[in-house]
Amino acid sequence: MPVARANPPHSATHPTATLRQQVYAQLRSAIEQGRWPAGTRLPPSREQAGLLGVSRNTVLWAVQRLLAEGYVEARVGDGTYVAQALAQRPAGNARAGTPAGTQALVAPPRGLSRRGQLVADTAARWRPPLVPARAFRIGAPEVATFPFAVWDRLARQATQAQRTARAQYLDPAGDPDLRQAVAQWVWASRGIRCDAAQVVVCSGSQQGIDLIARLLLDVGDEVLVEDPGYPGIRASLLGHGALARPVPLDESGLCIAQGAAQWPAARMAVVTPTHQFPTGVRMELPRRQALLQWAREHDAWVVEDDYDGEFQYGNAAQRVPALCSLPGSERVLYVGTFSKTLHPGLRLGFVVVPPALVDAFAMARAITDRHAPGDAQAVLARFIAEGHLLRHLRRMRELCQHRQQWLIDTLADASDGHWQLAPSDRGMHLLHEAPTGSDDEPLARSAQAAGVMLAPLSRYAITSPRRGWLLGYAGYGDEEIRAAARVVGALAARGRARQ
User: Fold this and answer.
1) Cα separation of 125 and 91, whole Å?
2) What are the two backbone dihedrals, phi and then psi, of residue 43, each rounded to the nearest 5 degrees?
3) Which of 158, 281, 398, 413 has its CB 3.0 to 4.6 Å from that of 276, i.e. a possible disulfide?
4) Which residues pair with 225 in a beta bridge?
5) SS3 of 202, please?
6) CATH code of the region 1-83
7) Domain positions in the chain
8) Tens digits of per-residue pLDDT, 76-132?
9) Which residues make beta-bridge pairs with 430?
10) How far apart are the C-alpha atoms of 249 and 177, rounded to whole Å?
11) 0.85 cut: is pTM over it?
């Protein structure tokens, strides 16, 4: 194959960019403009450095950034390739799902700042869902049985004086009653001891991650992220100019020792320790302690995204508390949301931060969108305080356990036993893992065309060779699960027949 060439680095569009930033921009432009199509093998770094007239380290830095952003993927023993996910294809699937018709990379609009361009670029790697959820889209909770009547009754009980007060500008850190209710809730449900003053209310976990990145990271800072992991986290980090550094997982969770050795300058780690997204691994206690020790020794932060952490099944004594509840967790920021326990349309979440950071987070929230709606905060505070959240969560746990088993049974039947999903005592989706390095995209595309949302594991990987498919079950009734399982079973059988 002829060597792909980029323009000389001095032609980069921004005159004040460093040499390595110019090289990165040129390589990225070659990908975005289609000169290096998806699947193209990048030239060896030494060869590329010679073509551009720069040092090999400069090229390696640029390639590492492209790798972190998802433009390229490394294949062990076989070099670096333009990511297959950048080819024109049906929608990818973010943690809460993705829309149909995801487009190939396009150049960002002119006139954006460098940071604005970074934000615009994230659309090539992650987009929020824009279509109604259908099986087996992951991250979609059960909403049909939400107690809307209870919620409406609590809203109507507000006095005229209370409603008038909530119609004013409010504390950007959140309604005092809601912050108190959240502090009590995380103690009861996740074992976290914190003052209400440490709770900052935000619009879901995505805004919580955004606030953390904006306040605690500078452009160029390195952040350890799980690989495979949630693209929405990486998109937020990259949008602020941080570098997402992939760290592999094993049966105990994030391999922090390997990550620390490979990325010694990292200033933060973002983890989903209770139910790792998307693999479902639970971070074991020794690994949690090692992560906290790393944070102390490196003066770094740990962000605990407690994705569906409340959805642990079995008796309460078997449920694993949050990482933030452990001794020595002073450098942990806990991100929680009510999008899964209640519904995503509520747009309320929170961050538990160290006391010294509360004012900064409150001001960042004020600058962003001032504060969350007062009425919704007040009703949620009562919903929690009066025990409605706990009762609703108990019902959802029972329903999820039933739907998980129904998915396992119907898919095994529809696939003639070829798809045997392992049950889990936590979470809202299951992973059917394929042999390492296999291609999980064709089946996902066929399922999409047949009306079933089957997310391939490869879309969540940076360098990880792990492959498979994710199947959400929490938000779908028995008949919808059965129908989708029949589609997947038939497609999988067709794939086996062609082999």
Assistant:
1) 11
2) -60, 155
3) 281
4) 246, 270
5) strand
6) 1.10.10.10
7) 1-83, 148-387
8) 666 788 887 666 443 334 444 433 333 444 444 557 787 777 777 776 667 777 778
9) 471
10) 39
11) no
- Label residue 2 by pLDDT band (50, 70, 90): very low
The DSSP string of 31-85 is HHTTSS-TTPBPPPHHHHHHHHTS-HHHHHHHHHHHHHHTSEEEETTTEEEE-GG
Report residue 271 as tokens: 């983890």
Which CATH number does 148-387 carry? 3.40.640.10
Whether the ω angle into residue 136 lies within 30 degrees of 0, i.e. cis, is yes
Of all helices (H) and strands (E), which one includes residue 247?
strand 243-250
DSSP state letter for 334: E
Antiparallel, parallel or unpaired: β 429-434 and 467-472: antiparallel
Torsion of CA 46, 247, 454, 420, to 10 degrees: 120
The DSSP annotation for 415-441 comes to: TTTS--PPP-SB-SEEEEEEPTT---H
Asked if 323 and 304 count as a contact pair (C-beta separation under 8 A), the reply is yes
137 and 480 in contact (C-beta within 8 Å)?
A: no
What is the tens place of the pLDDT at every residue in 39-70?
888 888 877 777 677 888 888 888 888 887 77
> How many CA within 13 A on the CB side of residue 262?
14
Amino acid present at 362: A
Q: By C-alpha distance, which of 66, 3, 61, 56 is closest to 32?
A: 66
Contact 460, 230 (CB under 8 A): yes
d(CA 172, CA 365): 6
